[in-house]
Amino acid sequence: MSKIVNYKCFLCALLFGAGLTLQTAWAQGNGSLVCVRTADAIQADAQLSDLLHQIVPTVFIGENGMEMQGENAYLMVECAPSEVGQLYAVNNLFADVRVIKFRLKSSADVVNLHLSKLQNFPQLQYVYFLYEYDACADWTDACLQAKTLQSVQGTAEVTVLYELSIPQ
Fold first, then answer.
1. Do 62 and 4 fall into the same domain?
2. 37 with 163: CB under 8 angstroms?
3. Does residue 1 share a domain with residue 61?
4. 153 φ, ψ to 5°?
């Protein structure tokens, strides 16, 4: 009798676990949009670490306009949250860009990115959100996946990355 009860409990736990796995997969993916912790993505793509953490040719978009670092074939655009609209403009500088980076320094930095409007990024692979403040109010990144997904609308063949890195 106890074997039957244990078997039923095992089946319930298995089905419950499968349900959580599906729920987690749905929360992580918005259609074909995937949102992952940066450290996990780097384990899957060793070149990503260099792209995100080394000096690469970059276009900086801020309140004072655009600045370029490096020669042509820009691999990254670092965009101020308030200047997202400039990403939708026609610009040949974006042709080789693989990463769009948003540096978020406070809760006032809000990004509302529409992936379907990014027509000038044929090589885009990643959208990277770097949180430089305690966004979850508990010194962890526990809420960042959900917070990041709220910042991105639409679907595309890109991976959305998030990272908590508070400067000291």
1. no
2. yes
3. no
4. -110, 145
> Per the structure block, which two tokens stand in for 68?
């370029």
Number of structural domains the chain divides into: 2
Secondary structure of residue 124 in the 3-state scheme: coil
**61 close to 86: Cβ distance less than 8 angstroms:** yes
Is the per-residue pLDDT at 20 higher than 50?
Answer: no
Domain that includes residue 8, residue range: 1-30
Instruction: Kindly state whether residues 82 and 147 are assigned to the same domain.
Output: yes
pTM above 0.90, yes or no: no
Strands 113-114 and 152-153: parallel
| Residue 104 and residue 44 share a domain | yes
Cα torsion 164, 76, 95, 114: sign: positive
**Which two structure tokens, joined as six digits, stand for 142?**
């526990």
Instruction: Convert the pLDDT of each residue in 103-113 to its tens digit.
Output: 999 999 999 99
